[in-house]
Amino acid sequence: MRENRRIKAALRMARLPVVKTLAGYDFSFQPSLDRNRILALAGLDFIERAEVVHLLGPPGTGKSHIATALAVEAVRAGKAVYFIPLADLITQLAKAEREGTLREKIRFLTRASLLVVDEIGYLPVTPGGANLFFQLVNARYEKGAMILTSNRGFAEWGEVFGDPVVATALLDRLLHHAVVIQIEGSSYRMREHAALVPENVRNGAAFNPRPPKRRG
């Protein structure tokens, strides 16, 4: 009973929007996804190695579900976890910068063993947001694990963040010790109404997971 209360309290502190599990993920709907690879991540070794897990794919393919489920596994293992969409994260960092508490905010966000940043690419990044996110990523680099979900390929991150130079610096750190999972499938949420959706949307034709060109 006491252990259950501890886990519930830790889940609230992690700010998870919902509680998801890997058992609740329909792997049969996304045959492109290697189930064993996801289950291996649930062993949480990537947290001990301070790696970054990238979950890339079109909307509705289960990226946030998997990220949340891995976060739940980490909480149950006694790890400190913090979950936040990118737009909310940048809003918090910008507020801290205006109030002169940015250093303290970044220090708080580096305490978690696992930081999950959801929905990269869904909303435009506000001016200055890319630099703020870079400061956080740089503070966690090789010190704390992260899970990032995005509907945009790495080649598009210059557009996503509105600054190709900062995007390149971000990727330089985020891909150094990384696990990249690409989900190439249809939206699970749209499955019951697939006939009403244009084929290029169903197949996520707009998604392009091309890696960035790296210069020696």
From TrEMBL:
One of the record's GO molecular function terms: ATP binding
UniProt xrefs under InterPro entries: AAA+_ATPase, DNAC/IstB-like, IstB, IstB_ATP-bd, P-loop_NTPase
Domain named AAA+ ATPase: residues: 49-184
Residue intervals passing through the bilayer: none
CDD domains recorded: AAA
Short name of one Pfam family: IstB_IS21
Keywords: ATP-binding, Nucleotide-binding
Single GO biological process annotation from the record: DNA replication
NCBIfam families: IS21_help_AAA
PANTHER family: ATP-BINDING PROTEIN RV3427C IN INSERTION SEQUENCE-RELATED, CHROMOSOMAL REPLICATION INITIATOR PROTEIN DNAA
Family per similarity comment: Belongs to the IS21/IS1162 putative ATP-binding protein family.
Protein's name according to its UniProt entry: AAA+ ATPase domain-containing protein
